Amino acid sequence: MPSSPPSLGTENQSPFQVDSRREIIGLLRGLRESKQLISMLINSGSEVFITSILEVDDTNNLIIIDSAPSQLANQRITEAPRVSFEGLLDKISIQFSSDNLELITFEDRPAFQFSIPATVIRLQRREYYRINTPLSTPIRALVPVQVDTRQETLKLSLVDISCGGIAILDERKAMDSTIGVIYEHCKLDLPTIGLVDVVLQVRNSQDLILLNGKTNRRLGCQFINMSNNVLASVQRYIMKLERERNAKMTGIR
Question: Which of 30, 77, 103, 136 has the largest count of CB atoms under 10 Å?
Fold first, then answer.
């Protein structure tokens, strides 16, 4: 099932620790070159900002990342005793942290810089292979919810999908994000395949602050009692996404 990467320091992660400077720089550059969004967490994860890596400068031992959307947020980040970062690179969770973020100007816009970390945590412990869904043509999940006294079907964008579940964005925060809540009679609108019926159970929730200042809520949901026919449809769609991604990476049209 999709889930947020565990926060740094929550378990014994020494088998997953990367100490090689060359490998660490390679992982950070991979995040930058693939333009992956990463979570920036302060105050033990109670505040989360979405950012991206702008530059990895190994000569000066610096990473430069996007700043937060407001001056106040940037001040809280620079004053935080420790800032943790979590991102995904080729299905692997990449985690690192810093305690010395400095607000600078990079290419005529505010940014943070800090030292390249001496260690990085690299985790690959997913029960199912999952893949990000395309941003250009968002995939929708149709989720019936009770809003006040009426029934409403939310049309939510998928972040990623696996044979075990999905991650979705609930901008209105209309869903009950309590862990374990089950939503029945949901549908996924999969391109070239059509609508498939699923039952979703909320497994994790994270409120995000985007770089434009807007907020969003990311919910990781597990499929419950999925039929073999629906599982096969989801597998076909994942394979289709993988083929398209591979073709794009190799320049095949």
Answer: 77
Q: What string of H, E and C letters represents the secondary structure of 1-18?
A: CCCCCCCCCCCCCHHHEE
Taking phi first (over 0 means left), then psi (-120 to 50 degrees means alpha), and beta for anything else, what does residue 16 get? alpha
User: pLDDT digit string (tens) for 181-233?
Assistant: 999 999 999 988 899 999 999 999 988 877 677 888 999 999 998 888 888 88
- Give the list of residues 6+ apart from residue 24 with CB closer than 8 angstroms, or none: 18, 96, 116, 117, 118, 119, 120
Sequence-ordered strand ranges (E) for the chain: 17-18, 38-42, 47-51, 53-57, 62-66, 83-89, 92-98, 102-106, 109-115, 120-123, 130-132, 140-147, 150-162, 165-169, 182-190, 194-209, 215-223
The answer to whether 245 and 131 have CB atoms below 8 angstroms apart is yes
Reported as a single tens digit per residue, the pLDDT across 94-145 is 889 998 899 999 999 999 999 999 999 887 654 456 788 887 788 999 999 9
CATH architecture label of 14-123: Roll (2.30)
Q: Are 141 and 158 in contact (CB under 8 A)?
A: yes
What kind of architecture, by CATH, is found in domain 130-250? Beta Barrel (2.40)
* Domain regions of the chain by residue span: 14-123, 130-250
Q: Which helix (H) or strand (E) holds 247?
A: helix 228-250
CB–CB of 167/221 below 8 Å? yes
6: pLDDT strictly greater than 50: no
Helix locations, 60-143, DSSP H: 71-79
Please answer whether residues 40 and 98 qualify as being in contact, where contact means their C-beta atoms are separated by less than 8 angstroms. no
